[in-house]
Amino acid sequence: LSSSHLQIATFALGTVGWILCTVSMGLVDWRVWHVDNTTVISSGIAWVGIWKVCFISYLHVSPGYKEQFCHKFKAFDSFVPHEIYAAQGLLLIAMILGLVALTATVFALRSIYMGIVDKTITHFFLVGGFFFIFSGVCVLIPVSWNFYSVAHNESIAFPPSYHMPSSPVSQQVGAAIPIGIIAVILLLLSGTFSLSYIFPVISNTITQ
Questions:
Q1: Is the distance from CB of 21 to CB of 41 less than 8 angstroms?
Q2: Rounded Cα distance, 99 and 200, in Å
């Protein structure tokens, strides 16, 4: 039972990592753009996510009021950079893999605490460990790629209907990227802990 305490930590870290992966995927502020033309983008700041781009505008509302405008990316939009398309696909895969890993871990822990002594427990932890690690790698790739794009102030050729410049004056990392980095660390840790599970050796020796 003592060896299962590390696996409880595996489940806890994996759960938090999976939640943070999901949160990161849903956030719009992956890249924060600072623009100099505030005619439409009133605050001078736009948030570029992996599903849409948003900004605050006073243009179409009464003075003193603000409204957030968002343009969703479509599957056939050719202007969307590769790192954003990669993030869409890989984070969806990471979410599914993380869910499989959590399910396998739950089955293994259930067997341990019900007193079921069976070597299939090890198989469940192995499956969970590999899927946690694969999930972490699937988050790491888009997070690193988008971080690289921000660091090099890379542009996006938005169509005129988006009212977005192709290049910002400057850009910075949004909240989604550090959240994604934490998710990567937690998922890789849980995978490592899960793979470290050793099936307890039960001695049949009877003392005289």
A1: no
A2: 27
Tell me what the pLDDT averaged over the chain comes to: 86
HSE-up (13 A, CA, CB side) for residue 108: 31
Indicate left, alpha or beta for 64 from its phi (over 0: left) and psi (-120 to 50: alpha).
left
Is the torsion defined by CA of 23, 68, 34, 154 positive or negative? positive
Residue 123, judged by CB atoms within 10 A of its CB (0-12, 13-18, 19+), counts as: middle
Q: Tens digits of per-residue pLDDT, 26-68?
A: 999 999 999 988 788 888 899 999 999 999 887 655 555 667 8
> Is the CA virtual torsion 50, 52, 55, 56 positive or negative?
negative
In the chain the domains, ranked by start, together with CATH numbers, are 3-29+75-196 (1.20.140.150)
CA of 204: how far to CAs of 111, 201, 207, 208, in Å? 21, 10, 10, 13
CB 39 within 8 A of CB 165: no
Give this prediction's pTM. 0.85
CA 145 vs CA 46, 71, 114, 181: distances in Å: 20, 22, 44, 12
